[in-house]
């Protein structure tokens, strides 16, 4: 089976968490709920590029969980993946420590 370009989400690449998060949020708010590859470019001599597949999720009422997406990207940016692979409501545990991320400060006027 061959996938068409319509089925493959365009990857996002950037050097800043906030810029890439704004781009990802805008795509989902525009109706593109596909998982996509995200690459945060590293700083030479400091840390390498970090790449992961980020997947938009919906909450129990069916609404987009923007904080979940922010937490996935936060985990990627800081090299702290969730121990349970969940980021519901922006909360996750990595290496036994609780972390959280919020999307609201990064939302572009989407309403």
UniProtKB/TrEMBL annotation:
<protein>
    <submittedName>
        <fullName>Uncharacterized protein</fullName>
    </submittedName>
</protein>
């Amino acid at each position: 089976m061959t996938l068409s370009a319509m089925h493959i989400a365009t990857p996002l690449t950037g050097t800043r968490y906030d810029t890439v998060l704004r781009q990802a949020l805008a795509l989902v708010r525009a109706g593109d709920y596909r998982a996509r590859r995200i690459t945060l470019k590293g700083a030479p001599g400091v840390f390498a590029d970090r790449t992961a597949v980020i997947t938009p999720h919906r909450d129990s009422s069916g609404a987009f969980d923007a904080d979940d997406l922010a937490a996935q990207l936060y985990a990627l940016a800081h090299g702290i993946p969730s121990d349970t692979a969940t980021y519901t409501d922006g909360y996750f545990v990595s290496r036994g420590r609780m972390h959280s991320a919020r999307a609201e400060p990064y939302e572009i006027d989407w309403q």
